[in-house]
Design goal:
This protein has 318 residues and is of the alpha+beta class. The chain is built from 6 helices and 19 strands. It folds into 2 domains: 77 residues, no CATH class; 214 residues, Fumarylacetoacetase-like, C-terminal domain (Fumarylacetoacetate hydrolase, domain 2), CATH 3.90.850.10. The strands form 3 sheets. Strands 1, 2, 3, 4, 5, 6, 7, 8, 11, 12, 14 and 17 form a 12-stranded mixed sheet that branches. A 5-stranded mixed sheet has the order 9-19-18-15-16, with no helix packed on it. The protein has a two-stranded antiparallel sheet with strand order 10-13.
Length: 318
């Protein structure tokens, strides 16, 4: 399944929706006790997701409906009829093109980023990737949406760069997880653009501030549940800046796999449900090009991850 936080033009509060092709189904239109956002749904555990699947499946036209598995989420007090506000029937669908996106994650438990996780990117930035993993936090104010405009002050930085990354969302509390079991803790995947002020990055010891300006962490356009991405190490990533391909690589090139990252992080601290982990960017950064290529006023950058979608950001210097 594919989830997004969307809102109708003129509304300020995003609503959780299931995205199918070019249309969206707002859960609060088909469920009495709809989760208010993705974090709420994740915290409900497998039963919550099963209940959403049952509600959406029950409201599908008969030709497309599939029988829901009989679980605690689909029987008794939480039967499909109880979950669907108006009972079975055609789903109320909204064209995604008519809606506004919000960040794919609105209230993540935390946002963890991994640096230098592709050898080519580490090399171009003159960093080492074979030693200890580089780990830092991104501030929640930096989260923004697909299609949004990201701004930054001209007098603060003139070296703003893009970084296409696979985002991993944890589905249940992870502590002391072995790498062989780590993917069982993943709820879903999204696209992240880890926008970075390079001049600040290389003038400070810590990386959080240079990557946490307001709007520097676009996510989306959707979150895809883990069952639809059986192998996160077999996905293609690209970055398109104003019509030119700047990054073009595979997650197979990661120094540490998604499973290894989760395992390592969970050895020292419990990773709570809803945590977003941005897993690093491949080579092709604008900073390393000759001459360097940075995001400018009026730039449009689109980062894409195979199987998830394309995340577009418009740039404005103020």
């Amino acid at each position: 399944m594919r989830f997004a936080h969307l809102r109708v033009e003129g509304q300020t509060t995003p609503r959780l929706a299931v995205v199918e092709g070019e249309s969206a189904i707002f859960l609060d239109e088909v469920m009495r006790r709809a989760p208010r956002d993705l974090q709420d749904l994740i915290e409900q555990g497998p039963e919550g997701l099963a209940r959403v699947r049952a509600a959406v499946g029950a409201a599908e036209p008969p030709s497309r409906a599939e029988p829901a598995a009989e679980t605690e989420a689909t029987t008794g007090a939480d039967t499909v009829v109880d979950a669907v506000a108006d009972g079975p029937g055609a789903l109320p669908r909204h064209p995604v093109a008519d809606l506004r996106h919000s960040s794919a994650v609105l209230r993540p438990a935390q946002v963890i980023a991994i640096g230098a996780n592709y050898a080519a990117h580490a090399s171009e930035l003159k960093l080492r990737s074979e030693t200890a993993m580089t780990i830092f936090s991104l501030w929640p104010n930096s989260l923004t949406a697909h299609g949004a405009t990201t701004t930054w002050p001209a007098d603060l930085t003139d070296q703003v760069d893009y970084e296409a990354e696979l985002g991993v969302i944890i589905g249940r509390s992870a502590r002391g997880v072995h790498a062989r079991d780590a993917l069982d803790y993943v709820w879903g995947y999204t696209v992240v653009n880890d926008i970075t002020a390079r001049d600040i990055q290389f003038s400070e010891a810590q990386w959080s501030r240079c990557k946490s300006f307001d709007g520097f962490t676009p996510t989306g356009p959707v979150v895809v549940t883990a069952d639809e991405i059986p192998d996160p190490q077999n996905l293609w990533l690209t970055t398109n800046l104003d019509g030119s391909i700047m990054q073009d690589a595979s997650t197979a090139e990661m120094v540490r796999s998604v499973a290894e990252i989760i395992s390592l992080l969970s050895r020292s601290a419990t990773i709570p449900p809803g945590t977003l982990i941005s897993t690093g960017s491949p080579g092709g950064a604008g900073y390393s090009r000759k001459p360097p290529v940075f995001l400018r006023d009026g730039s449009t950058v689109t980062v894409s991850v195979e199987g998830i979608g394309s995340l577009t950001t418009h740039c404005r210097v103020i």
